[in-house]
Fold these 3 entries.
Entry 1:
Amino acid sequence: MKILILGGFLGSGKTSVLLQLAQYLVQQSSGSSQTRVAIIENEIGQIGIDDKVLRGNGYEVREIFSGCVCCSLNSDLISGIQEIKSTVDPDWLIIEATGVAFPDKIAESLFTNLGLAARVVTIVDASRWQRIRIPLANLIEGQLNDAELILINKTDLVADLELMAVEADLRNLNSDAVIYQISGIKPMDEGLLKEIQHG
Amino acid sequence: MAENRIKIRKSTQLSKRKDYQIETTLHQGAVAIAGETVFTGKPFNPLQTIIQEEFAAISRWIVASGGIVGHLKSFLSAAEQQVMISSTGEQVTCRTSPSALFSQGKRSEGIQISIALIVFNIPQMDLEERLIDIFDRLNQEESEESQ
Ligand SMILES: Nc1nc2c(ncn2[C@@H]2O[C@H](COP(=O)(O)OP(=O)(O)OP(=O)(O)O)[C@@H](O)[C@H]2O)c(=O)[nH]1
Ligand SMILES: [Mg+2]
């Protein structure tokens, strides 16, 4: 079971990317065995919107998780992941973190509690980067930690010069990550989808 | 007199919080307030328009009050159609899709509406009031039969 954590600020485009990615992974199924993708939606509070969006797109979503995986994995989530592994045993588990979570903390706790390795992909909203970067610096910068891939999203809303500035900023904050520019509302580049798939 | 009014307002607010299943969560400096309800017999499009208008107004109000919009989002789903409405500040966007329930041949009664407001630097009570106001406005929308 490969585990991917999708992180990034509120409204940055995590669910939009997740829908495309899940669809791609399923389409890539070879032969008779279909690639199985399980999705965990973590939202702040009890009432979720994203799980309904996913259901609306034809996905089966189980609401077995309550509480917050923002800072640490709670016992519901741990038993939930174990249950997914033992019952569905999917090829992929994609976890959409809340927009105020630190994805590296989730990865760390998955590893210490379950011995499972996860990759972190962080999505950045280019159209809001300048506006929230300073007032929410702690959160925004923390969300980039340990990200293998950073997707600069909503490039359709931003001029090239500004995009370059955002990318330069991101480079400074995480020099290891591979950075891509995308627009989550358009079909994503197959090369990028492959990169996420194969790491 | 004034005191009385406040009391009455408070108790109606409380019962409305129940009607609309309003829940508040505070996390990492963000206030997240969400609610949901089902309306039967009301037309879909006017309800969608109300939410779009309210999201635009709330975004302006948050910025004017020195807050930061995290994400205002809503999902409306009925038998034939569903829409996700979202705002992260300037614009309000809607994405409509055919209902998966419909294509699966399942029936759903009425229009299910969920709304979540996730915001920074705005007092919880003020935000709760705004959310109750949206649901009240939706509630006041005339039913199809009476049109
Ligand atoms: N213009 C534009 N809009 C986008 C793009 N990607 C996503 N959006 C819109 O941005 C809004 C938020 O997208 P989501 O995918 O829900 O973002 P999210 O990160 O999952 O949001 P939360 O789960 O609430 O934190 C939606 O209205 C999307 O349609 C993009 O590339 N360009
Ligand atoms: Mg989401």
Entry 2:
Amino acid sequence: MTVLVIAEHDNHTLKAATLSTIGAALQVGDEIHVLLAGQGLAAVVDATARIPGVAKVLVAEEVHLAHGLAENLAPLVAGLARRYLHVLAPASTFGKNLLPRVAALIDVAPVSDVIAIESPDTFKRPIYAGNVIATVQSRDSVKLLTVRSTAFSPVPVAGGSAEVETMDPGLDLGQSRFVSRQLTETSRPELDSARVIVSGGRGLGSSEAFKQILEPFADRLGAAIGASRAAVDAGYAPNDCQVGQTGKIVAPQLYFAVGISGAIQHLAGMKDSKVIVAINKDAEAPIFQVADYGLVGDLFELVPELLAQLDVGIGA
Amino acid sequence: MSERLGITEDDRAIADAVARFAQNELAPQAHIVDRDEIRTTRYASQLAELGVMGMNLPERWGGIGASPAALILSIAEIAKACGSTASMIGAHYLATDSILIGGDDMIRDRYLPDAASGAKLGAFALTEPGAGSNPAGMITRAEREGEHYRLRGVKQFISNADDAGFIVVYAKTDPNAGTRGISAFVVDRHTPGITVSAPEKLMGIRGAPAHEVTFDCLVPVANRLGEEGAGFYTAMKVLDNSRLDVAATSLGLSEAALAAAVAWAKERKVGGEPLANKQGIQWMLADMKLRLEAAWLITLQAAAKRGAGEKFSDYSAMAKLCASEAAGFITDTALQVHGGYGFTRELPLERLVRDARILRIYEGASEIQRTVIARAMVA
Amino acid sequence: MKVMVAVKRVVDFNVKVRCKADGSGVELANVKMAMNPFDEIAVEEAVRLKEAGIASEVVAVSLGAKPCEETLRTALAMGADRAILVESDSELQPLAVAKLLMAVVEREAPQLVLLGKQAIDDDANQTGQMLAALLGWPQGTFASRVELSEGQLKVTREIDGGLETLALALPAIVTADLRLNEPRYVKLPSIMAAKKKPLAVITPQDLGVDVAPRLKQLKVAEPAPRRAGGQVGSVAELVSKLKNEAKVF
Ligand SMILES: Cc1cc2nc3c(=O)[nH]c(=O)nc-3n(C[C@H](O)[C@H](O)[C@H](O)COP(=O)(O)OP(=O)(O)OC[C@H]3O[C@@H](n4cnc5c(N)ncnc54)[C@H](O)[C@@H]3O)c2cc1C
């Protein structure tokens, strides 16, 4: 069974999410075709052709495809989609912008944000902001899915040799025009909306330690900085960093509690975080009772070591 | 959501709109308002823009045509977020209700639209150092001097007085006529001869300052509300309304305390299991819920009577008594569920306990409410 | 220019939903409902366009059961001029909603349709894109800024890692992201006035649209609860677990 994967790329390199999407595609099919639509794609076509499991790379190149405009891209994908049982795209802003438009063109109900593939027609996806996991079955002849890259392992980037096929890039519908793109400098996100939060407690011991230990780590992760009340009261961190009952209530994907003992007021402010990591020298600290991963030891050694071992950023 | 008896979709829509403002703007500041004694009169213009400051008034004078139930739900939502703010609004309503009930259209036109728009805040001055539970014992005098009255006396615990644009003052025009010698006046706050003292140091509702106010000033005859001698009757009618506002404030504080207690009981583990698993705690929660719902029902019953134009003094008194006593019990029990943490100023429980305490005292203490209820039975 | 806004009635975002014991769905009895927050941003944007003299009329549309009228009343209280309810008691999935909206668009002929980027119940993030496809209109999804100049709509979009600006020909579809604006507090007098604004009720049959669901929800479940804290022995083990087990990197 052949699966079509819509690649996300910037005309030069493949986005990491595409590799996970191919990983997901391999769960429903054995032959993967990847569509690369854009302009000046030589390098990315080469790279894609080397991905093991990819049988064919479909290449559509034209200036009107350069910026991934959904208006021009959707008819192209819709024309291909009928030939496959599954069409997958990453559940990124790119995939979410494009795939529903394709789906409506071929009268199919797409499935967004797939986190597990139960069978070729049955999928799991989070609803209600992840508080509920729904299992849904698609009854359409073609299944259109956007998949969460965090839920599927990426495929390796070398070892394969796919056939490359050039296709008709279609017309510029002229309905939309790309004006500009500004990629955010990794300025620190707001506590309320951050995907990752690094919080420090009394264990940091000084505002200098917040700067020297916590900030580089947070910046590496594209994380917001939080603090326990004890750290705020001691003047290590400003007031608006306080996480807890009387501070901000947060629920990021990933929460690092560094040198925080875990008073119940603090726990009330962060316990809904998806994954909690605690680093503390006191093995009995209550924070370890809510942490998914606890690391006992000296934060002044462990945090820099952690920073050194992170080879993949999280922010993007 | 299933509603309590007598609440319409419109009432709910209004309350939801107020709740949203209250949760976004008031709740995050409530502990600072309490800690630093920040005057909640600062919210008056925002609340007026929303439509809350004139909510007790007919549309003609800037009101919104809300039902008594909508008014209660809205005040409860505000109290849930910040007790001081609810109290500040209550004092404003005491003043504007006095004008609405006691005055004629001329004086209503002069004061009420400004009161609804937030241009002028109201204060209500009935209590005196020697006349609280027994307002008939007041000694403040208003003596006719041509086209004016000379107002002389001291009023005690007057909420909003310093920031008010006008103060409704009750005074004796005839010291020998008992309650029939009392008249009501609208006095502009900045009339020469009015001295507002520094606010009292309060246990709770610390963002709703109450002042001693000394009057030795002239008030135009045109600022008298109704006839000479009609003031006491006006005051009693005003209190019928305002006791429902106090009941609503009680309900809001109780809702906040109970919600905190339930959340804490589910969260806090003692001996390896949540507090909520312990029957002793469950019974506390059940008793709180029971008293809260009972208080809601009698308050809404009183509101329905008010809406129907029936006499409701006794129901208003029962609602205030029931809800304010329930608020005392519920805030205290909710604090108990929180243990030592409830006693810290880190959590809002101790503030709720302190804020709720006044509700059994002002606008007729609990003892006085019983008198009002009984009088309706034996009179 | 006429602007249409689509609004959905959803479980209030403060409510923590629970699954029914048999997993057949989410418990909706006695749950507080409200307008989808992203739709509220869309309504706010439409009303601002009207206040700026750009929109001549704002029409709010909702699709679903009778109580959606309350949601429409909220849109009217925020400043929409009139409302249309496409009343249906059956489950309406995004594709059906897009088809119904297309039929309403054909009747109303707006130049701009604003929607929220997604509803906070099903989190599908599809309806706007599908409506655009069905109408053959351009789409500005996840908008954080909308500007009309010389017959073109400039839409700044929140994309992964930054912002992108597109110029769209009108008529167009825009879906609102969080930072597009901050919706106003609805004033109490507006709530009362909204009761007098027109609200028309039509049915999917009137529009000739088949709304049969395409996806079958087999079951719902709450995510596995947090495990008791496990300790890791080293930084290397932590990094590997975060990558391979928690999959957060
Ligand atoms: C924060 C605050 C704000 C206030 N705001 C205002 C305001 O804006 N305007 C205003 O006019 N007033 C205001 N008041 C005054 C308030 O209404 C009075 O304090 C209240 O009516 C009680 O009067 P009192 O303090 O003189 O107590 P007292 O009358 O001295 O009563 C003392 C106690 O004796 C009880 N008691 C009295 N008589 C009887 C009886 N016959 N039988 C049984 N028990 C009895 C009372 O219930 C009470 O428990 C405010 C008070 C406070 C503390």
Entry 3:
Amino acid sequence: MRAPERIAELAPASDEIETSLYEVRKKIYARAVSGLFARWRIALVIITQLVFYCSPWLIWNDRQAVLFDLVSRKFFIFGLVFWPQDFIFLTALLIISAYSLFLFTTVAGRLWCGYACPQTVYTEMFMWIERKIEGDRLQRMRLDQSSFGARKFGLKALKHGIWIAVALWTGFTFVGYFTPIKTLAASFSPWVLGPWETFWIFFYGFATYGNAGWMREQVCKYMCPYARFQSVMFDPDTLVITYDAKRGDPRGARGRKADPKSVGLGDCVDCNICVQVCPTGIDIRNGLQYECIGCAACIDGCDQVMDKMGYARGLIRYSTENAVKGKYPDQEISKHVVRPRVLIYTGLLVLVIMAFIGGLMLRSPLKVDVIRDRGALVRDAAGGQIENVYRLQFINTDEHAHRYELSVSGLPGLELVVKQPLEIPPATTQMVPVALHIDPTGLASGSHPIVFHIQEVDRPGVRADEKSRFFVR
Amino acid sequence: MGKWLMLILWPSFIVVCIAEGVFFTLIDPQELYLLGEPIHWSATAVYSVGFFLFWAVAAASSAFTCFLQRTAGDVNRQS
Ligand code: SF4
Ligand code: SF4
């Protein structure tokens, strides 16, 4: 637990405002930046958003490939189907994500924040739109200071209009993961969108618009729990974005031709580019601060300055605390990646992933779900008998077709009306309508618990028991 | 005010996401009863209403924490 103190000691009393939560916030006008890390971020924005916006449209076995179907309580992810009983896999998935995050953080700091977090990704998209419409940093500042007129109104309206459109599309896509997206899309014209679907589209859209358009770095600073405890995973060998004070200080402006040594200066020309490009508005030269999301914009910014000055790049760079302290040269950083903490996280991660895959492979190849016909509970059948109707959803997760025998227990005298054996094709879900008949004489009215037994014909080991109810008038 | 709203609504929102997930994984909304009657709303409605009920409960707890967090000085100054 020494890491948090280290951060405090590296960040001498931040001279910025914002000592108290949410009160004074200076609007940050981040300057556009280009360079290696900016390109990585753009690539990740594109990849993650292609996955997010396109996945719900993919089709697999005649159904939506990725669908978290809350109504039928099943999650479809390509060939895999998860039932509520499978929630252990969801837990495992969460553990895997958590350990991956720990591992990445220990090795290279806030990679997640800088490149892949939805907050970063949507902010990046929204800032891009803002830049295209209002221009870069200075133009935006001027626009905001200018008095309200037709031009300002037009630009602002356009920006917010596009933001809202993107946000609503995002909300629509999000809801499309839970309600079949084609049905959802079709319900816009004519307008038959369900009230809750409408609500959630707007709710998610509003959150996107608010977080990426307005809140931005404040989400990272005040709302994100990860930002608060990331330092726990840091150690002196963790790659972080650092300003090389030994090389840069004393800072100061100088002519391009001047030799810094002869004028008594370090390599930092005090141009403030690193501060202007920073989306969280901090000065990385003050040391590692918890506000730093590790986006590396300051690296790209400073490298451009160094190029212009003809100095070596990397005045701000990915380095480790130990390397900056001179315990080993930068070239040896990779040799310090393998260390107990990294090995432990990796070991645990590998174990959980293996358990996850093993568990998936050992899942029972047969799943049966009994769905009661809610419309008609009890019907009259021939010969004074009464009838209850069910639909049995068979899921044969195996790659081969299988035959099954069905039987029922719970009420003596129940007769099963279905053609046996049932054959279900490979890797398919099939609905089988089943009727149960009984002579109601002497039966108490109300619902009686019953159990359907399903037995695979060829493999005695594969069976399933499903509870349901039989209603008597 | 905005600060308090944030402090109350945001942490409770995170807790709600977890609570909603766990609760409805374990319990099928079709098996819930409201005042002795089976709920006949759509599943989406049950999930949504459940979400906001959980949120209200969690937010109440957050609000109470904020309320109790006021220092002796804050309380004395007010009265
Ligand atoms: S961008 Fe580089 S040279 Fe300019 S102020 Fe920042 S550290 Fe110094
Ligand atoms: S200090 Fe640099 S890496 Fe950190 S958030 Fe600012 S620009 Fe990004």
